[in-house]
Amino acid sequence: MKEVKSLAARAKRYLRSAKLLIKDKDYESAASRVYYAMFYITEALLLTRGLSFSSHKAVLSAFGEHFIKTGIFSRDLSKSLKRAFGKRQISDYEFTFVISEKEAKELLKEAENFIASVIEYLKKEGYT
After folding, report:
1. Residue 16 pLDDT greater than 90, yes or no
2. Are 98 and 86 in contact (CB under 8 A)?
3. b/e sequence 49-82, b meaning 16+ C-beta within 10 Å
4. Sequence ranges of the domains in the chain
5. Quick one: pLDDT band at residue 95, thresholds 50, 70, 90?
6. What is the pLDDT of residues 23-37, one digit of tens each?
7. Residue 85 dihedral angles phi and psi, to the nearest 5°
8. The architecture CATH gives domain 2-124
């Protein structure tokens, strides 16, 4: 599926961007890129089930319904995705700098694990 590969490539690119933003000490932008990397790989995953949603919350909910509750992925991945969503909301909409270097690096590490797990699954299932 072309869309799955395209979204997976975008997720990887956004992770690289997040690393550069952390290096540049732009932690709010890095948190946003981290979340979107996770969001895009989640959208790719949902496409493998013929699912597509127009809202972020629907994507997060469907991930939980189709991939966490079924035992395909651990609950930790769902927690990481929800945490990244929350941090992205704060980083994109707060008027002050609110994401620390430590938080940004932790989010990045969680995102790398999240994306690696999903890509491994996609490869195993023959999508990438």
Report:
1. yes
2. no
3. eeeeeeebeebbebbbebbbeeeebeeebbebbe
4. 2-124
5. confident
6. 999 999 999 999 999
7. -60, -45
8. Up-down Bundle (1.20)
